[in-house]
Design goal:
Elements: E1 6-8, H1 11-20, H2 27-38, E2 42-45, H3 46-52, H4 58-65, E3 71-72, H5 77-92, H6 98-104, H7 111-121, E4 124-126, H8 146-152, E5 157-158, H9 160-167
Parallel strand pairs: 1-2, 1-4, 2-3, 4-5
Helix pairs in contact: 5-7
């Protein structure tokens, strides 16, 4: 099993819930996910938890019942400082339009905070986001993507399935 601590993006819980592993079809997935979250191997950012609690569904109920082993409050000075650096990177990079910075500057957007937390704590981000192919200054993007920005801060990103393999998930 991996020694990494994984920081989970909201989409890595919502997509399985909606598309691949509904609670009635794959309870083993959710039991293992809960065990790793409660055990601290999968960290949860406060903004991610808040996003998940916005729904009125079984996923919200599941998240509400969890005891978070590694729960991250983003309002810690080293994290705030790194968050500022992430936004500064987006602002100064000619590969991004102003709208990318405007989106990531919203207080409810978890993406820049995930990168800041992962950079400060050496966590690996779990996300379904893919890098922005063809990112260049001649055709700047209006959307910053976690994998692109995370790599600039030395943060590893993996998808849900890579994390599951590394942690030894078994679906039966």
């Amino acid at each position: 099993m991996s020694n990494k601590i994984y920081l989970i993006d909201t989409n890595s819980l919502i997509e399985p819930f909606l598309k691949y592993y509904p609670f009635d079809f794959a309870p083993g997935f959710w039991e293992q996910m809960a065990r790793f979250i409660e055990g601290g191997k999968i960290a949860v950012l406060d903004l991610v938890k808040n996003e998940l609690l916005q729904g009125n569904d079984k996923l919200r109920d599941w998240v509400s019942a969890l005891e978070m082993g590694t729960y991250i409050d983003r309002r810690q000075p080293p994290i705030i400082e790194k968050y500022s650096a992430v936004l500064q990177y987006i602002q100064s990079n000619p590969c991004y339009k102003t709208s990318a910075l405007q989106e990531w500057s919203k207080g409810t957007v978890a993406d820049p905070w995930l990168i800041a937390v992962a950079a400060v704590n050496q966590y690996t981000i779990v996300t379904f986001e893919k890098p922005n192919d063809g990112l260049n200054a001649r055709n700047p993007s209006k959307n910053a993507k976690i994998p692109d920005v995370a790599s600039e801060f030395g943060v590893e990103t993996v998808d849900l399935y890579s994390m599951m393999r590394e942690l030894g998930f078994m679906l039966r």
